[in-house]
Every structure is written in structure tokens, then in C-alpha cells.
Amino acid sequence: MKKIVYEGRKYIAREGETVLDTLLRQGVNPPFSCRNGACMVCLQRCVKGTPSKDSQKSLRANLQKSRYFLPCTCVPEEDLELAPPREADLYSWAVVKEKELLAKDVCRLRLESSTPLYYHAGQFINIKHPSGLTRSYSLASVPMEDSYLELHIKLVPGGEMSNWIFETLSVGTDLEFHGPHGKCYYVNGSTDQHLLLIGNGTGAAPLLGIARDALFEHHKGRILFFHGSHSAEGLYLHEELQALVRHYSNFSYFPCVSGESVPQGYLRGRAHKVAFAKCHELNNWHVFAAGNPQMVSEAETMAIQAGANRSEIHADPYEVRAIQSGPSLTSSPRGPAVQETVYAGSNRAKERVGPNKADVEMWQALGEGKLLKEILTDFYTQVFDDPILAPYFRGITKDRLIGQVYSFMRDSFSGEREYFGARPRAAHHWMVISDEIFDHREALMVACLQRHGLPQHLINRWRKFEETFRSDIVKAIPWKLVLDGIEQPLDGFGEMTMTTGTVCDGCARAVDTGEKVRYHLRIGLTYCSECSFTNPEIVQSSQAA
Q1: Most confident range, picked from 96-100, 119-123, 388-392, 400-404
Q2: Cα–Cα distance between 106 and 203 in angstroms, integer?
Q3: What is the mean pLDDT of residues 452-466?
Q4: Residues 6+ apart with CB under 8 A from 185
Q5: Collapsing DSSP states into helix, strand and coil, what is residue 517?
Q6: Does the CA dihedral 332-333-338-344 come out positive or negative?
Q7: Triad 313, 30, 346: Cα angle to 5°
Q8: Other C-beta atoms within 10 Å of 8: how many?
Q9: What is d(CA 441, CA 389) in angstroms, rounded to the nearest whole number?
Q10: Burial 99-125 (b: 16+ CB within 10 A, else e)
Q11: How many CB atoms lie within 10 A of CB 515?
């Protein structure tokens, strides 16, 4: 059994288990994405011990020499201590090979890296300004076809980086960059699957790379490319995309203009709305979206509503950031999420579902609760055995959890208003959960619903319902919980008077409405008045308070 030291804590790896899987199994959430050594997101530095050769073979020589490795491919051969990457180690040099205006406010840079770079078309790299400012730009180039890295830079009034690139940067200049990063890229797997690509502005850059990469790999499914702008002049790749249409029978291009003046041959409307007006059923499609955050968010939601699997939706929103030196703005693709501390902000005793509109068809298909109970029992039996999900439910019984979720889902589908427990935002406020873990849970639930014979259109509706809580659950750091305007600690106990009946988690006796109980602030375990005086953990917490 090998020991893994991560952020000062020790974890035991099982036989044949990777370092990343060891950490995930024990409730740790390090940065990661692909889990197969391609994206480099999980990169770590080994300060004690020697990582496996397999976990270093895809890295640059200087990173190998500095003892960097990929935890997702490292099965430890001895005890290891990890440290986060040093920023200086991750930067490489490139020279500006070409600089060209594609439109009056869009510049194309082609860079030649000083060292071989493994990347996927559609990923992004971080460029460093001489002042130290960094900005992220997506790659429109294809590694197997192009000898350069291609970036499309939008000129932002007052933007320090974009103005420097447009006005000062010249061919032959050396640039520092690090990357690639991101998971919005084409994977050569099911070549018969259809691809839907939706972008606006320079969000077209990664989508161009993805489309070219797929065509280079002889993708057989249809590739539909929707590019939107307020005016036709903003569709700066119009000629290049039309050329792809002429050369490939399975490639289609839809130029979308949302302004008043729409030239002949262009489509009126925003790219994502035009796309989903044409594409109603996306089961077994891959969907890629890049550009304005609001458009990307709406496209993700509409794709799910059209039946696309969440794991097959790949998105790169371009976030607007304020420049420190003034009120000007610039934009870049989203990198690893950084969540500010926010507040759950509601009284636990008053939190409730509703008013809900009953989903009669769903409730009848669930046997008015009978099949729902069977589905949840099956699902949480798997969850409690799952190495990724089980750590989140330590300290709560499976029966208790099933009962809570059943009450919540019953009210949601039947239209009843009897659930008074915590809503998902408050119930998960202490959990650090990534999109990948959320997707993993969703895949288990979909498989469970299929086993129990729920029709596909109702499975899609169930997924749509749960998807509405993604923004309440996925986060990089815990959220603080506020009850009655008072910030609560992540551990310890609070008191409340029950507004509905429940069961004591200590002695299992019925707790009636109006009875005062103590409950764990983080995981919600509820104890009757008798257990509150006999449970050592509660007594100790009360004395400390």
C-alpha cells in the first residue's frame, strides 16, 4: 500500500489505483479533466518519491527533469508527495510567425513554438504580456495539419493585451505562453456521430479548429457550423467556411445575423436559436459551443432539452474581465473555475419546494411514487458503493438520504408542498463538486432510469430538471451557509422546531411536528431532544459553543 501526500494530508492508494483515483475516492477534488493523460490539467510536481515513467512520457523534457507527472496515469510504485506546479516551469516560448487582420477588429496570429507541443484543436493557451498580464486564446490550428499555433484575437477598446497585439506586436517577436488547457475539443471516436458547432464572435476560432480536425480524421457524420454576429461584417470566417462546404459534402455552414440588416444568403437571428430551430433531436450528437457566456449557457440548456447527453456537450464561454488600469474590458476563454465565497442565504426551516406545477405524466409514469422509491433505492445503493460519490455521504444513512430525496422529488413532480428540507444549494453548500463529478452522477442516474423502464422523453425531462441545479452544486470551494442572517460554521449543531414530522437519526423514533430538535449544520442529521443530551458529539459541540 503506497502513501500519497497531497496538500499536507496522507492518503492510501489501493493496488493498481492511480494517484488521481486515490484522491477522488477519498473525497479530494484536485484539478483534472480527461483522466487519460491528454489534457494535462491534473499536472503535479513530485517533491518526494519517483513517479512512474508512464506518467511522464508525454511531458516536455524540462518538465520531466523538474519531476512533473500526470496523476491520472500514475500508478504509484512508491510513496509520493505532491506539490502544485510552479508557474515559471509551465511557460514555453514561441515566435510570431505571421500576423494578419481577418477583419478590422480581429487579428490572426500564427506562432511557432520553440518546443514540440501536444494539443487538441479547440484548446486554449495563455499568452503573457511583457507587463506580466496573461490572457487566454483558443487554438484554431490543427496539430496534424499545421506547423504553427493559430489564434484569433478580438480588439477590445482599452484592452491592454489586445491593443498591444494589434499595435505593437510584430512578426519575429518572442512570446511566453503556457498550456494547452481546456476540454472543448474533438475526440476521434464515433465517426458516425453528428457534430453541432455553435459560436459567435471569435468563439468561431476553436470551432474552426474542431471542424478541421474532424474532417482531417475523415469524420463521416454531419458537421453543422452556426456562426453568429450582429452584422455580416462580424462573420470574419465566412469565405473560409464556405470553402469547407465546397470541399466536404458532410460539412454545412450557417451564417447568422442578429441585427436589422441581413444580406441575402444569411440567416436572421442569433446563432444558437437558429441552430436549435433546425436541430430538434440531439440524442447521440456531440455539441460544441463557444463565445459569449450568455449564449453558451443558453445553448447548453437548449442542447439538454433537445436530448443531448451532458457529457457530449463541450463549451468555452468567453468571460469579460475588467482591466485593473481602467474601466476597459477584455475577454478570454474560461479556464479552471474559481468560485468566490457566496451565501446560501435562506432559513432552513422555511426552505421548501414550490409553488410547483405538477408534471402529471411523469408522476403517473413513476407509479405516483412507488416506482420513484424503487429508482432512488437502486440509485443510492450504487452511489454508496461508488468510489467517487460515496465520500460525500459519510455520516448519513442510505435510508435517511433516500427519504429526503424522495420527499423533494415527490413535491417536484406531483405538485405537493410538503417538503421543508434544505434545497440543493444549501444542502450541498459544503461540498466541492466538479462538472465531471456532476456528470458522473448524472450518467449513473440515467442508466438507473433506463433499467426501470422510464420512457426516453421522460428521462430527458428528468435530466433537464436536475440540470437546473448544476449552478447550485458545482463549485471549487465550499459556500458559506447563512440562516436567519447569521453565517453558520461548516460543522457543529443548530436547533430548530420541526414544522413537519421526521425520524430521529439517533434512536430512529418518530419526531412530531412542533418538537425541538438539534441538527448537524453540514450534513443535516437530525436528533430528537433525548438524543441531544446523550450523543457525545452533540454534547461536546454544545459545550464548546
Answers
A1: 96-100
A2: 12
A3: 89
A4: 120, 121, 122, 123, 206, 209, 210, 213, 314
A5: strand
A6: positive
A7: 75
A8: 6
A9: 8
A10: beebbebbbbbbbebeeebebbbbbbb
A11: 15
Round to whole Å and give the CA distance between 210 and 226: 13
Q: What is the DSSP letter of 105?
A: T
Lowest mean pLDDT among 39-43, 286-290, 412-416, 498-502: 498-502
Residue that has been written with the C-alpha cell 431532544 in this structure: 529
pLDDT for 343: 28
Query: What is the pLDDT, as a whole number, of residue 534?
Result: 62
Q: Are the C-beta atoms of residues 169 and 155 closer than 8 Å to each other?
A: no
Q: Would you call 365 helix, strand, or coil by DSSP? A: helix
Q: How far is CA 504 from CA 333, 350, 532, in A?
A: 48, 20, 10
Q: Quick check: 302 and 211 in contact, CB under 8 A? A: no
All domains in the chain, ordered by first residue = 2-87 (3.10.20.30), 89-181 (2.40.30.10), 195-333 (3.40.50.80), 360-478 (1.10.490.10), 489-544 (3.30.60)
Cα(405)–Cα(422) distance, rounded to whole angstroms?
10
Q: Are 282 and 306 spatial neighbours (Cβ–Cβ below 8 Å)?
A: yes
* Three-state SS at 199: strand
Instruction: Measure the CA–CA gap between 129 and 132, rounded to whole angstroms.
Output: 5
Per-position DSSP letters for 397-463, written without gaps between them: -HHHHHHHHHHHHHHHHH------S--HHHHTTT--B-HHHHHHHHHHHHHHHHHTT--HHHHHHHH
Cell of 117: 507541443
Q: Sort strands 286-291 and 195-200 into parallel, antiparallel or unpaired.
A: parallel
Q: What are 292's three cell numbers?
A: 459569449
In 17-129, the DSSP E strands lie at 44-48, 68-69, 80-83, 92-103, 106-113, 124-128
Bond from prior residue into 180 cis (ω within 30 degrees of 0)? yes
